[in-house]
């Protein structure tokens, strides 16, 4: 039997790896390099992800995939600190003392926020799916807590669409992220970069004789009796891992569910000094062309790279604002007092299908793994709720491939 996988991101590559044991396989990836959102820039002497990445100790399937691929020895657990930039000042927000000292929330707001965090694990989020996060926070913690704390966070994650995000998403996220010790959380990173994961999958697929066609977009997909024709080639089954709205553009493809998506623009800079007072993840409050500054080398030692690496992160709907890259750079120079001469290099990555927006009613929209005879899995699948992630990509790949094996054995 011959199977086609559309999309060479982590989900498509993992699914192909699982399926390659049972079927003849072709994988199509429109970009010239595999990895999708987890692909990397090759720099001289090292590789760095186009979009900042870390994993969590609870990412069970991702960690066991790394084990199976023989790359677990690269895994390091490092301290990932967070902070808030407000009115020209950086506020670390990791320990209870730092939170108590944070001046932009009253003590009463902090107590209400703490109580909500404690309750978040016991709340039934299915009842919150139709309620906007803003309404929920204002009702339970207060207007000030929303504008001073949650609104900038939501904006850094969802840009202009943040008002549409559901309380179910917010509470699920708080519940997941509140499992940290008093001195902050340990996050996982593969020494040398997550390209090890992508490279190992590609190498296993090469060994299994799988055809990996990079730089080849799927442009047509039609049903031909029991078979599928993909770019004119016949297959017994097709797994699409691309965004449903991208699938819907392919002539002949079956109707795809309408999942709200956003794009991401991520500026990566190599520079001569550290800029965020040692903080890894700095959310930016106020008017800036990016919502967060992620100092990769405040997480992974700069000695691995011979320079500091910083990401400026921003999300957009449909298309990125004109001149975004230039505005990010000039704001960064001014805000962090960095002379342009200190920047060694910079690259802007723009992904139009960077992840779903978890709007009210989102849970109803998530599609099954099989629709109209086509298999579908990816960032829109249930394992990626309430947050699309590497773990979600691996779990979705595992679940859809189990179903495919069963269906193809039956059929
Ligand atoms: C800014 C950012 C930061 C992130 N940080 C983290 C993190 O710290 N930790 C974490 O766990 N997760 C993180 N993620 C999420 C993680 O990267 C994704 O969940 C995961 O990589 C998604 O994999 P995927 O294969 O489902 O999708 P994708 O990586 O999007 O793969 C889909 C692939 O399909 C290809 N494609 C599209 N159309 C076609 C076509 N017509 N023909 C052929 N190929 C096509 C695309 O080029 C792409 O390579 C982050 C994501 C972003 C955007």
Task: Report on the architecture of this protein.
By secondary structure, the chain is of the alpha/beta class. Among the domains are: 2-53 and 194-259 and 367-410, FAD/NAD(P)-binding domain; 95-183, no CATH class. It contains twelve helices and 20 strands. It has helices at 10-19, 60-69, 96-101, 107-119, 133-140, 143-158, 167-177, 195-207, 244-248, 324-335, 362-365, 390-410, and strands at 2-6, 24-29, 40-43, 46-49, 75-80, 82-86, 89-92, 185-190, 211-214, 221-224, 227-230, 233-235, 237-240, 261-271, 281-284, 292-295, 308-316, 343-356, 370-371, 374-376. Helix 1 (10-19) packs parallel to helix 8, helix 1 (10-19) packs parallel to helix 12 (390-410) and helix 5 packs antiparallel against helix 6 (143-158). The radius of gyration is 22 Å and the shape is globular. The chain starts with a strand and ends with a helix. The model has no long low-confidence stretch (mean pLDDT 93). It binds flavin-adenine dinucleotide (FAD).
């Amino acid at each position: 039997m011959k199977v086609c996988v559309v999309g060479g991101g982590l989900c498509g590559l993992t699914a192909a790896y699982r399926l390659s044991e049972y079927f003849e396989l072709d994988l199509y990836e429109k970009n010239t390099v595999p990895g999708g959102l987890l692909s990397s820039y090759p720099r001289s002497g090292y590789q760095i992800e186009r979009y900042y990445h870390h994993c969590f100790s609870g990412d069970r399937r991702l960690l066991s995939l790394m084990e199976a691929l023989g790359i677990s020895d690269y895994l390091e657990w490092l301290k990932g600190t967070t902070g808030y930039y407000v009115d020209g000042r950086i506020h670390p927000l990791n320990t209870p003392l730092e939170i108590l000292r944070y001046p932009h929330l009253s003590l009463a707001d902090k107590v209400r926020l703490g109580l909500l965090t404690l309750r978040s694990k016991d709340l039934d989020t299915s009842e919150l799916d139709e309620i906007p996060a803003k309404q929920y926070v204002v009702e339970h913690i207060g207007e000030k807590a929303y504008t001073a704390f949650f609104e900038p966070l939501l904006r850094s994650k969802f840009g202009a669409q943040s008002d549409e995000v559901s309380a179910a998403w917010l509470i699920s996220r708080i519940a997941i992220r509140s499992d940290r010790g008093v001195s902050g959380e340990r996050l996982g990173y593969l020494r040398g970069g997550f390209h090890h994961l992508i490279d190992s999958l590609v190498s296993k697929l090469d060994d299994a004789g799988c055809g990996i066609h990079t730089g080849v977009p799927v442009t047509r997909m039609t049903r031909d009796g029991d078979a599928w024709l993909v770019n004119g080639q016949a297959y017994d089954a097709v797994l699409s891992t691309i965004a449903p709205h991208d699938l819907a553009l392919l002539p002949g493809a079956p109707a795809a569910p309408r999942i709200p998506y956003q794009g991401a623009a991520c500026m990566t800079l190599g520079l001569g000094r550290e800029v965020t007072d040692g903080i890894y993840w700095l959310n930016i409050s106020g008017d800036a062309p990016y919502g967060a500054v992620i100092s990769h080398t405040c997480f992974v030692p700069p000695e691995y790279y011979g320079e500091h690496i910083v990401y400026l992160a921003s999300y957009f709907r449909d298309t990125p604002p004109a001149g975004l890259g230039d505005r990010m750079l000039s704001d960064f120079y001014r805000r962090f007092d960095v002379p342009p001469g200190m920047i060694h290099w910079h690259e802007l990555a723009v992904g139009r299908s960077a992840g779903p927006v978890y709007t009210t009613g989102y849970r109803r929209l998530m599609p099954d793994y099989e629709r109209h005879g086509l298999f579908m899995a990816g960032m829109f699948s249930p394992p990626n709720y309430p947050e699309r992630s590497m773990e979600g990509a691996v779990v979705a790949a595992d679940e859809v491939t189990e179903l495919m094996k069963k269906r193809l054995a039956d059929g």
